[in-house]
Amino acid sequence: MQYAVEMIVTVPLLILLLKTAPAIRSVSQYSRAVQCQFGIVPAVYYAFDYATRVYTDLLFSGSAVVVEFMPFVCSAAYLLFLGAQALWRSRRGAPVAVQPDGRVAGGPWRTGLVSNVLNPKIAVFYTSLLPTLAPSGVPPALGMALLVLLHAVLTCAWLAGYVYLLHRARSVFERPGVRRALERVTGVVLIGFGIRVAAASN
After folding, report:
1. Rounded distance between C-alpha atoms, residue 198 and residue 181, angstroms
2. pLDDT value at position 17?
């Protein structure tokens, strides 16, 4: 009842404001598209504010439907939306987004150096775990140097192989047919998750 009274009071005031306020009357001189742009922001704000007030009041009232059912409905609706969006992008003839080449000279080396220097796990590994693996019978400095060299070689081999495989796979995954197939699979999986969440809410 309270919300109906608010709407009855608000609508006449809005009409009066549109008729009398100079700033608002000046907006009427613009095209219909510009007027819609002026009005969409406050309209969305007031609609969201009204919906949140109603939802908050229902939460405080202890409604089981709102407390237990609505989160599942929102989650399921969002998953269904993402799935439908992925299926829509996978349709034949839809433009395929191409990622720009953002390579910068020295960028990978700088990124790797900074990420390792600021990574606390690397510091913990070299100060606590690695000394316990040092071989006996050799000077500690030499043993640590050998372990560090071995770790660097293994890391370079792993990352080089990882980058090589990704580079080889990139040409495959950038094909329009493969991209559309991945979008379709992703869309079907998301819709399936959405349906499962909705069914679990029952």
Report:
1. 26
2. 60
Average pLDDT over residues 155-171: 86
Point out the least confidently predicted range of 11-15, 22-26, 55-59. Answer: 22-26
> What's the pLDDT tens digit per position in 179-191?
888 888 988 998 8
pLDDT at 154: 92
State pTM to two decimals. Answer: 0.41
Question: Can you say how many angstroms the Cα of residue 100 is from the centroid of all Cα atoms in its chain?
Answer: 19
HEC-encoded secondary structure of the chain: CHHHHHHHHHHHHHHHHHHHCHHHHHHCCCCHHHHHHHHHHHHHHHHHHHHHHHHHHHHHCCCHHHHHHHHHHHHHHHHHHHHHHHHHHCCCCCCCCCCCCCCCCCHHHHHHHHHHHCCHHHHHHHHHHHHHHCCCCCCHHHHHHHHHHHHHHHHHHHHHHHHHHHHHHHHHHCCHHHHHHHHHHHHHHHHHHHHHHHHHHC
How far apart CA 109 and CA 162 sit, in angstroms, is 16
Sign, CA dihedral 75-77-80-82, equals: negative
Side chain identity at residue 186, one-letter code: T
80 contacts: CB under 8 Å, gap ≥ 6: 190, 191, 194, 195
pLDDT value for 181: 86
